[in-house]
Amino acid sequence: MAKKGQASMEAMIAIGVLFVIFFVMFMFYNQKNIDLNNTEIELTAKSECFKLSLAINNIFSLGENSQITLNLKNNITVEPEQKRIESESATCTIITNQVSDQSVLTGQRFTLLEGDITLSNDNNIVVIQHE
């Protein structure tokens, strides 16, 4: 009878050790999954920043009467005087400071909200407006 009791105790200890090992592995997996999701969010923000930067540069280079429509998935801030745009986790440069959210050049910083926007070249000013 003592042998059965000791075998049961050893089995419980072995099961406990296995449980701890699996728990540690699960915690490691969970942390890696969180890191992967954060990386995906960061890459999406960088992609949006580059997409808008490329669109601004193209519209400016194409000249008068050119137009592009984009769909933004994140809010992006445009800083014409510094020739840059910023999203949550990315900063991109643009080739011109002739960018405005109005039909006249103000040079003021402005924020684009997520959704459809239209970029057009009006007298060599890249005008960005929400649709």
Write up what this structure looks like.
The chain has 131 residues and is α+β, with helices and mostly antiparallel strands. It has one domain (39-130). It is 47% helix and 27% strand. The chain has one helix at residues 2-62, and strands spanning 67-72, 76-79, 84-86, 91-93, 99-100, 110-112, 115-122, 125-130. The strands form two sheets. The protein has a four-stranded mixed beta sheet with strand order 1-7-8-5, with helices on one face. The chain has a four-stranded antiparallel beta sheet with strand order 4-3-2-6, covered by helices on one side. Strand 2 (76-79) and strand 3 form a beta hairpin. It is rod-shaped. The model has no long low-confidence stretch (mean pLDDT 90).
Write out the strand line-up for the largest beta sheet, numbering strands in chain order: 1-7-8-5
Number of helices: 1
Given the helix and strand composition, which structural class is it?
alpha+beta
Report how far the terminal alpha carbons are from each other: 82 Å
The counted number of beta strands is 8
The largest sheet is: 4 strands, mixed
Please provide the ordered H/E string of secondary-structure elements. Answer: HEEEEEEEE
Radius of gyration, rounded?
27 Å
Total of domains: 1
Chain-averaged pLDDT:
90
* Uncertain runs: none
Q: Provide the β-strand percentage band.
A: 25-35%
- Estimate the global geometry from the Cα principal axes: rod-shaped
Secondary structure: helix percent: 40-55%
